[in-house]
Give the backbone structure.
Amino acid sequence: VVSTQSTGYITNNLRMDNFLKVVNELQDVFSTVGVSPDTIKLPQIVVVGSQSAGKSSVLEGVVRRDFLPRGGGIVTRRPLIIQITQDTLTTEAWAFFLHQPDKRYIDFEEVREEIVAETNRLCGESKNILSDPITLKIFSPDLPTLTLVDLPGIVKVPVGDQPEDIEEQTLNLVRTYIENPNSIILAVSPGNVDLANSEALKMARQVDPNGKRTLSVITKCDLMERTTENRLVLEGKSIPVKLGIIGVINRSQAKLDNGQLFIDCLDEEEHFFKTYYSFISGEMGTTYLTKRLCQILMEHVKECLPELILRITEQKVIQQTILESLGPRVDDPHYMLIELLNHFCRAFERNIEGKETIRLSNTDGVSGGRHLFQQFEKTISTDLEHLVLPEDIEAQIEQEILSACGAKPALFTPNSTFENLASNQIRTYVQPVKRAVKKCSETITEIASQLSRKTFKRFPTLKREAHQICLSLILMKTQDVEKFLDNYMSCEISYINTNHKLFTADRKRIEQEAVDEGAELSFEKQNVKRIKGLLNLYSNIIKNQLMDVVPKTVMCFMVYGFKENLHKELIRSLSSRDKVGDLMREDVYIEEKRDKATKMLQALEAADSITCMVD
C-alpha cells in the first residue's frame, strides 16, 4: 500500500500514517470520555448500508479475516470503530478492544464473540440499537493504516421485539456520522437489487448532494445481470459519486461454511472481473477497494488538515481553560487547605474594601462593601426620613397634656407630656433599625456564601463546613449588633435629653416661631404648636444620630468583627490534621472532569505535534 518509489514519498506517507494513528488516539479519547466525535470532526470512513447489503463481507474482505457477527436481522447494533494499524514489527495480526485494553486477541473468532458480548452488555438481548461505539484496534504486518466505522444496517420494518421507531433510530444514528463534513461515506448497495432503491445512496445524497465524499461499493456483483445498464453502473456513468464505484463479490454461505481462505476468495473475485468486466477489472474487487480507501483517506486528511489544525488549536485552548478552572491535583492537602482559607479571607476583605467584586442578587455588579453602603442608604436613611410625625400629632399632644394634668386645670405643660410623645416617636424607629441590621446580615451572608462556593467548589465537605462556620460567626456578630442597638434604642426611649446641645440651640427659635405663627390662637393652641415643633426637632436629631450610629455599629461589630475573627475561627475549626483528608477530598465529578480534560489535551497535543510535520 505504501509506495517505495522514493524516500521522500515514504517519509511523507509515514508521517501521514503517524497522523492517522493520532487521529485514532483522539477518537479513542472521545469514546472513553464520552465526547462526541463532532467536537473536532475527525476524518473517517463511515460504512453505510441497508440490512443484509453485504457490509460485513466488505469489511472482512478489507481486514481479510472473519471477525464480525453474522445472522438474521440487525447484527450490528452499536457503531463499531475498526482502527487498523500497519505494524511491521509483528508477524501475525492481533487485536484488542478499547474497553479491554489489557486483553490481546489473536483468534479473531474470539473477537467476534466479544463484539456480540459487549453489544449485549449495553443493548441487552433484544434488537435495540445504541449510539455508544465499540472500538476495535487491529495490528497487522500486511494491512494498511486505516479507520472504518461500521454502523447498524438501515431497516424499514421492525421485526420481533424491535421498537416501532427502529427505522428512525437507525437513520438518526447514521446521520450523526455522515453529517460530519470530514467523513468519507462508503455507501454499500447490493448489486442484485435496483440501485434506485439503495438506502445507502439515498442517505449519502441527503448530506453529500454533489457526491464529493461518497464512494459507492456494489456488492454481490456475481449475482447481477450482465446488462448494459449494470455495466454503465460499474463504469460510474449512472450513479453521480465523485470518488468512484467499486464492485466486489461477497463470499457465499457455502464458502463460509467450508472455511475458504480469503486469498482464494480474492483470487476468484479477480478472475470474475477479468472474465466479465475486463475493461474495468483493474478498478474492481476488494484488493483495489482497500487501496482506494487508503488513497482517498490520505488525500482527504490532507484536504481537511487546515480546518483540523484550527479545531485542534481551539480545543486545546478550551481544555487548558477547563484544567485551569479545575485547579491542580491535591499533592499536599494541609498546605492547600491553609492556602484556600487564606485566599477566602483575603477575598472577603477585598470585596468589602471594593477591590474585588462578586455579583450579588439584586445588585448591578457592585462590590460587597458598596452594597452594604447602599443598604444603609435604603433601609436606614430612606426609612427614617419617611417616618415623620403623625398627622394627628396635635390631637395627641392635647390629649397627653390633659392626661398629664389629671383633675387640675392645665396652667403649665408638664415635662412628661413632651417626654412621652418623644419616646413614642422614637419607638417607631426600632423596626427600621432592625430591618437595616437584617439586610446587612443577609448581605454579608451572601458574600460569604458566594465566596465559599467559588473558593471551595472543588471540595464539597470543606465548602459545607466553611460555610457553616461563616453562618455561625455571622449570627454571633449579628446578635452583638442587635444587642448593642437594642440597648442604644432603650436608652434613647427611656431618657429624653432636652439638654442636648442641638436641641437647646434651636429650642428658642422653634418656640418663637410657634408664637409668631399662632399670634391669633389661644395660649393652649400656641402651646400645642410649640410642643409639635420641639417634637419634630428632637425626632430629627435622633434620626440623624441613628443614621450615624447604625452603620458604625454594623461595620464595627458585624463586618469588621466577622473579618477579624474569620481566619482565626476557620483555622481553629478546620486545620487539624485528622480532618484534612475528608475536607480536601474533591468532588467525584471534578476528578472525572480533570481526567477527561487531561486525556483530551494530551491527545490534542500529540495531534498538534504531528500536524506540524505533515506536508
